[in-house]
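Posting for a labmate who doesn't have an account.
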Amino acid sequence: MTKRRNISNILEALPEEVSEYIINTPIELAFNNLVDIETRVEFLLPFLGVPTSLKAYEYIKYALIEVCKDEDRIQNITTGLYQEISDKYGSTPSRVERAMRHAIDITFTRMDDTVSMWLFGYSVIPKKGRCSNSEFIARLARLLTKF
């Protein structure tokens, strides 16, 4: 039997400087495993600063949901997931990858440094100021499924 996560226990475990950005905001839903994964992803991405007006928002959302369902999907992101997304949305794998990279760049410029450090730690590439697409998706999937 899986142990249900209690939102108050999770929030208490967060560093104070991170929890102040999360408590009493829609992001609390991202930590609530009683809410379906699609809804949790839809609340998490805009909170982090992913622009919802870009096509890449849908690409990242789809990839994140798929990796949450099966974390092994992240292993073949280039040959598998990008191809699947491009087929679904009528694009090419290289355009999907580029669009996601652009949206992640924007996200990291919008994201609070404290939240960025808590979520991504030292996986952020210093010269670029962001992590790779696969690292971004993998970290968020782990947050949504394992935290």
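Reply:
Got it, the structure tokens are right above this. The radius of gyration is 15 Å.
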